UniProtKB/TrEMBL annotation:
PANTHER family: DIPEPTIDASE, MICROSOMAL DIPEPTIDASE
Organism encoding this protein: Stenotrophomonas chelatiphaga
Matches recorded under InterPro entries: Metal_Hydrolase (IPR032466), Pept_M19 (IPR008257)
Name listed for the protein in its UniProt record: Peptidase M19
Signal as UniProt keyword: yes
Alphabetized UniProt keyword annotations: Signal
Residues annotated as signal peptide: 1-22
The organism's place on the tree of life at top rank: Bacteria
GO function terms (MF aspect): metallodipeptidase activity
Length: 409
């Protein structure tokens, strides 16, 4: 997720692209896919939806269709047969001053509280999962699964010992860094290039402490040097919670084929992302960027908008697409990445992390209600039920189980 903390409010609005070949599925294919997903445990490894939990007017129990701020809610999860996933504690990267570190510490704790508050208020529909077995039990109980992850470890800079508190409160996946380098690791997209040449000493210590606690390490957003160091130092597999293929689109957030093979050899999993800017080059003009900046300013910024303003934002983005057309990623683009990764490492090392409510979504996969399209494509490609179950969560939970087994005394 990079959307809400860049000057550009919505890097990729979800509307008609300049040119795209839309992939079509029959009603029978989609029904078969939906029925399969309803049987399987279907998880997404990167949901930024907790950013909406404190937003004025947002209710996870209500649909928020045609809203640029919301792609995930309970009704649409049911419609799209999504059982849940990893709900992210995201904290924006500050200027790395002592004051910023304290703000990030407090923001992370507030986001954790938002998740736990949502769970308490919706205990009939959602439940916290701490283990793979919990996820299966929660699905059997007819509820949606909430694992807690942290995207960007900056909330831990001021006090790394808080990792123990987060773990006790439910944290089960941790990434070290986000869009810019922090005290723990180099970011793949840091504007100034590498600072630590991978992990810093503090970052190595943090990773080691997380491993001791059975927390899954997430390499998404970190530099290739961080990946290489994790391969060398990790006693258990790790994951990329929302990344794609560099061979299809040469973006620093994506992984090259050699590293994909290293990840698979180590037992890890890459969860394929649907953030359009990582799938294709949108070809955005300076005029388009300026118009988006002006729109963000007019509506008061991502964090301060109400859910009602999300509808206004969607209409304004649609208008920008007509005035300043860009290329928006489609399912064809997503499947190009996913198909390539499947061909390189096989279905045992692939999963799905679409970056919902953080910039993810495609012209023909606008929210979680449409997820059976992915399953229909997997079926059309010839994967069997066991392989699809792995892609939709089983592979990820296997890594999680290995991490937790290693941590047991």
């Amino acid at each position: 997720m990079i959307l809400r903390r860049l000057p550009l409010l919505l890097a990729l609005a979800l509307s008609t692209p300049l040119s795209v070949h839309a992939i079509d599925f029959s009603a029978a294919e989609l029904q078969r896919a939906t029925s399969l997903q309803q049987r399987l445990l279907t998880l997404d490894s990167h949901l930024d939806t907790p950013a909406n939990f404190a937003r004025d007017g947002f209710d996870i129990g209500n649909r928020h269709d045609h809203n640029a701020l919301s792609q995930v809610d309970y009704p649409r999860m049911v419609e799209g047969a999504l059982d849940g996933g990893f709900w992210a504690i995201y904290t924006g990267q500050g200027d790395r001053s002592a004051t910023a570190h304290l703000r990030e510490r407090d923001a992370g704790l507030q986001r954790l509280l938002d998740i736990r508050t949502m769970l308490a208020a919706n205990s009939d529909r959602f439940a916290l999962a701490l283990t793979p077995a919990d996820a299966l039990r929660i699905k059997a109980d007819g509820k949606r699964v909430v694992f807690i992850s942290m995207e960007n470890a900056s909330p831990l800079v001021a006090d790394p010992s808080l990792l123990g508190f987060y773990h006790q409160a439910g944290l089960r996946m941790l990434s070290t860094v986000h869009f810019a380098t922090n005290e723990f690791a180099d970011s793949a997209t840091n504007p100034k290039g590498p600072e630590w040449n991978g992990l810093s000493p503090a970052g190595r210590a943090l990773v080691n402490e997380a491993v001791k606690r059975g927390i899954v390490i997430d390499q998404s957003h970190a530099s290739d040097a961080v990946f290489d160091q994790l391969i060398a130092m990790m006693p258990v597999p790790f994951v990329l919670s929302h990344s794609s293929a560099k061979a299809i689109h040469d973006h620093p957030r994506n992984l090259d084929d050699a590293r994909l093979r290293q990840l698979a050899k180590a037992g890890g999993v890459i969860q394929v992302n649907a953030y359009g800017g990582y799938l294709v080059d949108p070809g955005k003009s300076p005029a388009r960027k300026a118009a988006e900046d002006a729109l963000s300013k007019r509506l008061g910024g991502w964090d301060r908008m109400s859910i009602a303003q999300g509808e206004e934002l969607q209409r304004a983005e649609d208008a920008l697409d007509r005035q300043y057309p860009v290329r928006h990623a489609s399912l064809d683009d997503f499947f190009a990445h996913m198909g390539h990764i499947l061909d390189v490492v096989g279905p045992e090392h692939v999963g799905i992390g679409l970056d919902w409510d953080g910039g993810g979504g495609l012209t023909d996969l606008r929210d979680v209600s449409q997820l059976p399209k992915i399953t229909a494509w997997l079926l059309r490609r010839g994967y069997d039920e066991k392989q699809i179950a792995g892609i939709w969560g089983g592979n990820l939970l296997r890594v999680m189980q290995q991490a937790q087994d290693h941590a047991r005394p």
